Structures are given as structure tokens and as C-alpha cells.
Amino acid sequence: MLQPSFALTAMMTGFGLGAGAIFSIGPQNLKLIQAGALHRNPAVVAATGYLSEILIVIAGVSGVGAFLQIVPSVQTAMQTAGIAFVIWCAIKALRSAGSANRPEWARNGGETRGQAIVSMLVTTWLNPLVYIEIMLLVGVFSSSYDNSLRIWFALGFLGASGVRFCGLPAFGRVLAPWLQSPRAQASFNRLAGLLLLIVAASQAAAIL
């Protein structure tokens, strides 16, 4: 019989691991903040990202994450692709900040729900670092539990993910008053671009 204390421990471990992602700098988190700050379908963006996260976590606890761990060549290839993706996002942000007009992500404020969904799906599923930082870590940490406890671990992780996907757009709304002018929006994009370049550099240093 499953001991409640074991289930609680597994859930809290999963929550703690998931909470770490709240403070990570990456395209997905910046997208969530952006959606809230610009009032561009933040609920749709958050829901799309969270549903994707559920699928990724399920894959992680089901063994895909462990597979990535035991095949170093696949892991390295995905890390390299992830670095390239982050650099591309950084360049896009910096180019937008340097444009004469309002930054690219601040234009076309009437983004449809469909466009918001597609944009978040691209940001999530085409970012290889998502598979390394979430699927792999979930697979590694959950592998120490039996099948019944892995469910509780996954629930804990997804609980923290829920906080992230709801909290970051809310944080973006707090920033909204300071992002009304084109200059402030450009500064945000410059900061985002520089932070993404730092992330790319740290990832590159880790695999060299």
C-alpha cells in the first residue's frame, strides 16, 4: 500500500524541481511575460504552454527522459540545437529593439488567438532546450521512484508549472505601465536579447 508520506515527498520533490523553472531565463518564460505585458491573449498563451508542458512531463516520467540521459550523442545534439534556437531568439529580439519603429513584438497588437497559439507552440516545441531542461530532468529525477510515486512526482512538477504559467503573465501585467512607450519596449527587447545570449553562452560552456 502506498504510504502518504512517500507520495507527499515525491510530490514536493517534483514541485521543487518545477519551481526552479519559474526563475529560468528562456524564450518560453519571456513569451509569457510578453503576453501579459502587452495584453496579447495571455490566457491563451499560458494554456497552450501548460498543455504542452503536461505532454512533455508525461513523456519524461514515461521513460523518454531516461533515454535521453543514456544516449549522450542525442543529448549533445539537442543541446547544440537549443543553443542555436536561443541565439536566433536573441538576435530577433535585438533586431526588433534596434528598429526605428516600435519593436516587432509590440506591433500588430490585434494578434488573433490562433496566432497566439501557433506562436507559443513554436516557442515551446521547436526549442530543444525544453526537452533537455524539462523532459530529461523529469526523467532523471522520477526514475528513482516506482510507477505509483512517479505520478505524484509529475503532479508536483505540474503544480509548480501551473504557478509559472499563471504567474509570469501576471508579472507581465505588472510591468505593463512601464512598457507603454516605444523606448521602454525597445529596452525590454534589448535586455531580453542580452539575457538570451548569456543563456546560450552558459549552455555552450557546459558542453565544451
List keywords for this structure.
mainly alpha; 0% strand; 80% helix; 208 residues; single chain
How large, in whole angstroms, is the Cα Rg?
18 Å
The count of strands amounts to 0
Helix/sheet category: mainly alpha
Share in β-strands: under 5%
Which runs of at least 5 residues are low in confidence (pLDDT < 50)? 103-108
Question: What is the CA–CA distance across the termini?
Answer: 46 Å
Task: Give an account of the 3D structure.
- By secondary structure, this protein is mainly α.
- It has one domain.
- Helix 1 runs antiparallel to helix 6 and helix 1 runs parallel beside helix 7.
- It is a multi-pass membrane protein.
- This is Amino acid transporter.
- Keywords: Cell membrane, Membrane, Transmembrane, Transmembrane helix.
Summarize the structure.
The chain is mainly α and 208 residues long.
Question: What's the structural blueprint in terms of helices and strands?
Answer:
Blueprint: H1 4-20, H2 27-37, H3 42-70, H4 72-97, H5 113-125, H6 128-142, H7 147-175, H8 182-207
Membrane topology: Multi-pass membrane protein
Subcellular location: Cell membrane
Main location: membrane
